[in-house]
Amino acid sequence: MKTSFPVPRRTLLLLLAIAPLGNAANAADPKQVVTFAAASFAEPARGEKMRAWIAKFNQSQEKVEIQPVTIPFSSFVSTIFTQMGGNAGPDLVRFDLPEFYAAADAKRIAPMDEYIKDGDFKFSSPDKYMKIAGKRYGVVFEVSNYSMVYNTALVKKAPANFDEFLASAKTATANGNFGYAYRATMAERGGFWYDLTNYVYGFGGRWSDAKGNPTLNSPKVIEGVVAYKKVYDAGVIPRGADASTYRRMFAEGKIGMQIDNGGVAANLASQGKEMQMAAAPSPFPTRAQGMILAPITINANSKNKAAAAVFLKWMLTPEAQRELQQIHGASSVAVAVQRSPEEIAKWPWIQVYDDQTENSVPALPQGLETKAPEIQQIVIEQVIKVLQGGVDPTKAMNDAQNIVLSRVLKR
Questions:
Q1: Helices (H), 4-72
Q2: What is the pTM for the complete model shown?
Q3: Of 180, 253, 259, 363, which shows the fewest CB atoms inside 10 Å?
């Protein structure tokens, strides 16, 4: 007769822990964690949707897991650059374009050509800005184009050119309403730069040439500045109003037209539910306008570059791109994604923004991207003199060119 002895529970657990588990052990191996930082994660609505989108990637993978890192927009850049400077930081970082160029210049982000091959994906036009000196340093995460939105109660028909635009703005300016709105104060310098850039690009100008030489006083740039002043002098804008104020006024039906990016257009449409909003190309001689471009990059300090690339390749699949575009709203993604019937029904004007992609150009001076903040400050100072001080536009832009050459570029 055999006698059995009960095995104490603690001993049994120990035996199970050290026993060979075969395939079960492999299945339980932890995934390689890749951290991904984006200010978007701090946004209540969009952040939640992005986490759900990333969860789909995690559920589809056996070896890689993306871990979102939330840093508020106000401290995002300083936090990330401090971490990168200490040879640390998240594996993946979603930058805005100025910081993208700064990070590449400081060698804080890694080339990704070995992982992302041009021929493997049908990238849209903005992808060309993801390369610096022939090397790919980013993939487009979000691009927001600029077009004109208008309130059809105040502006019956979209103006086809600048003269029609100015006439429509004057007609709509009455009874406490304004025909148009844009920024024209130093306090709104960042947004002022984008608004001004749309005029300069629309009139055929650029802030620099292909070789990185500033062209602030070129005839086409001056034409854009002259047009900006004509609008200012026409009495059709709520002078001194910041973007938050005049966008609220637009949603309330008090502004006839404004040129803004797709993200703002979506907000205006949702806020101004009683207003009939439409969109049209900006009423300038050319279709060129600025763009807000946000790349996703790989931290040069990352020990998980190959694993990070697994996520990037998944992100670029058609279904992942389609869902990411829906999360962004009126913005576009790395490849062209056709809008769903539901999106078009919700935003009938959205196709105008999507069609602008091929004509959009970054607002940074080409070849001088890392000098952009200094150039921006100088240009805005001079344009304010034109608007508020009556300085001749040609003189002001000649002064801007000379100051940039001597003070910024030391030439």
A1: 9-18, 23-27, 44-60
A2: 0.89
A3: 253
